[in-house]
């Protein structure tokens, strides 16, 4: 149980285009989803927290107009990187937490490369 | 604020050696503590957790005990295998009266390489 999937697993796009990454909880209802960014050989940096049906809460220094987050249902959250640039290239990881307990379950990550 | 400090890596061991990865934390309130493992090219997997003082989390031969007096949650394994090679992250959830929505604070990660 407690499986979280991400799609796509990797994506390459041209500078200036937008990219959408999906995060799904497959076997539980995720009341809260988190989006992280991980740079090579570094720890995870929390970007934002989203609760189903409400606006995401962004961490300091994260541009909300650049990284659009939608948590439209209890099993799906999306992260859209708008007008992507090479500096947005990174490994993006989502996690999900159910209504009870405090354990986050992580997706396998999405490798974004912006040319 | 909350913070997690892990021992610096990388850690290189021979198969069947004993493993310790140190983790200490600072937090307000009574945090839950976690160890996550990340295999190359993959996301994080929960390895074990402990939610209150003196709890011991264990999984796949790994153990960690929540020590409130020393604010530590060191990860140990008696006999490592090549397949344990990965990056290990210590993390805490401060549980600040429920308002944190479960935000995790991560340590910097420790790379473990086990040789045959």
Could you provide a short overview of the structure?
The complex is a heterodimer of chains A (115) and B (116). Chain A has 115 residues and is mainly β.
Walk me through the structure.
The complex is a heterodimer of chains A (115) and B (116). Chain A has 115 residues and is mostly beta strands. Chain A is built from no helices and eleven strands. In chain A, the strands form two sheets. In chain A, strands 2, 4, 5, 6, 9, 10 and 11 form a seven-stranded mixed sheet that branches. In chain A, strands 1-3-8-7 form a four-stranded antiparallel sheet, with no helix packed on it. In chain A, a hairpin with a 5-residue loop joins β5 (44-51) and β6. With 116 residues, chain B is mainly beta. Helices cover 0% and strands 49% of the residues of chain B. Chain B is built from no helices and twelve strands. In chain B, β7 and β8 form a beta hairpin. The model of chain B is unreliable at 96-100 (pLDDT under 50). At the A-B interface, β5, β9 and β10 of A face β5 and β6 of B.
Keywords:
heterodimer; A: about 120 residues; mainly beta; seven-stranded mixed β-sheet; four-stranded antiparallel β-sheet; B: about 120 residues; six-stranded mixed β-sheet; 12 strands; about 0% helix; about 50% strand; globular
């Amino acid at each position: 149980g407690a499986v979280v999937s991400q799609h796509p697993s990797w994506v390459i796009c041209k500078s200036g285009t937008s990219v959408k990454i999906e995060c799904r909880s497959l076997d539980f209802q995720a009341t809260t989803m988190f989006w992280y960014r991980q740079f090579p050989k570094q720890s995870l940096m929390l970007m934002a927290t989203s609760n189903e049906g409400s606006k995401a809460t962004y961490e300091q220094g994260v541009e909300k107009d650049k990284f659009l987050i939608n948590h439209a249902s209890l099993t799906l959250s999306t992260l859209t990187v708008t007008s992507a640039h090479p500096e947005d290239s990174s490994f993006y990881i989502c996690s999900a937490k159910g209504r009870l307990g405090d354990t986050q379950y992580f997706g396998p990550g999405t490798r974004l490369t912006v040319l | 604020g909350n913070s997690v400090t892990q021992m610096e890596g990388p850690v290189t061991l021979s198969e069947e050696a004993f493993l310790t990865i140190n983790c200490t934390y600072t937090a307000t309130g009574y945090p839950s503590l976690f160890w996550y493992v990340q295999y190359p090219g993959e996301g994080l997997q929960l390895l074990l957790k402990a939610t209150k003082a003196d709890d011991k989390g264990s999984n796949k031969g790994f153990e960690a005990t929540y020590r409130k007096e020393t604010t530590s949650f060191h990860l140990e394994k008696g006999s490592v295998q090549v397949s344990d090679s990965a990056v290990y992250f210590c993390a805490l959830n401060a549980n600040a009266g429920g308002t944190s929505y479960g935000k995790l604070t991560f340590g910097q990660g420790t790379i473990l390489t086990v040789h045959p």
